[in-house]
Amino acid sequence: MIEMSEVSKIYPNGVSAINGITVKINKGEFVYVVGPSGAGKSTFIKMMYREEKPTTGSITVNGIQLSKLRNTKVPLFRRNLGVVFQDFKLLPTLTVFENVAFAMEVVEEHPKDIKKRVMEVLDLVGLKHKARMVPTELSGGEQQRVSIARSIVNSPQVVIADEPTGNLDPETSWEIMNILEEINNRGTTIVMATHNRDIVNNLKRRVIAIDNGRIVRDEQRGEYGYEY
Ligand SMILES: Nc1ncnc2c1ncn2[C@@H]1O[C@H](COP(=O)(O)OP(=O)(O)O)[C@@H](O)[C@H]1O
Ligand SMILES: [Mg+2]
Question: Coiled-coil stretches, from where to where (predicted)?
């Protein structure tokens, strides 16, 4: 599903963010990526959806070797991936419905299919009744639920989330986790970078710990394991 072999990333400014990572994430797994700030978590996951390219090494996602992926094919590749960010990244002038529909319109789905599917995913995240609102009318947790709906609307095989609960209070964070768990239970692979010790230690899943651009720990049903 996701495979990295001897992957390193040196940014143009000379910062060495990832130093020789080899890892395999299988279909249906739920993986937390933990580690101190600046450890390389975001770089690690950005390379999975080709936001960044590795300097050396190879990456295969959903059977596609990313080094061989032409730029023109990137949108098609991303259709099989959902991405969720800490700061939601919703389009402020669009309604909840439009924000989610947008992800389907760019892949030229039929309007009737779009309406049906968008309402389906909004129902899954509990926001069908707020479809006509705009992001500023929603709480942070609700905005994150919209962004999760957007990430799954094209039924991707993998959802990649970079600190999705980073801006949310503990109770709201748990609501978000329940939704991600439900999505994972339906078969979608989830890779989630997080600083949330409480979630990692309670909702036991595979933990990949990164420090200084290296994997320092990789455990099934792992613990958060840091003092920060
Ligand atoms: N676009 C970039 N250009 C240069 N250096 C970067 C860039 N993005 C991240 N870095 C550096 O790479 C290292 C890893 O960053 P990052 O992957 O964001 O870590 P984390 O998500 O674990 O906090 C840090 O030293 C950071 O400053
Ligand atoms: Mg980060």
Answer: none
Question: What residue's CA is closest to ligand 1, atom 4?
Answer: 11
CA distance 20 to 196: 26
pLDDT in tens, 190-223: 999 999 999 999 999 999 999 999 999 999 999 9
Q: Tokens 């036991």 — which residue?
A: 204
Q: Which domains does the chain have, with CATH numbers?
A: 2-80+156-219 (3.40.50.300)
To test the pocket of ligand 1, the residue of 21, 42, 55 to mutate (highest count of ligand atoms within 8 Å of its CB) is 42
Ligand 1 neighbours by CB, cut-off 6 Å: 11, 13, 15, 17, 35, 37-43
CA distances from 153 to 47, 60, 90, 95, 107 (A): 22, 23, 14, 16, 11
- Residue 15 CA: which ligand 1 atom is closest? 5
> Residue 4 is which amino acid?
M
- Helix axis angle, 111-124 to 140-152, nearest 10°: 130
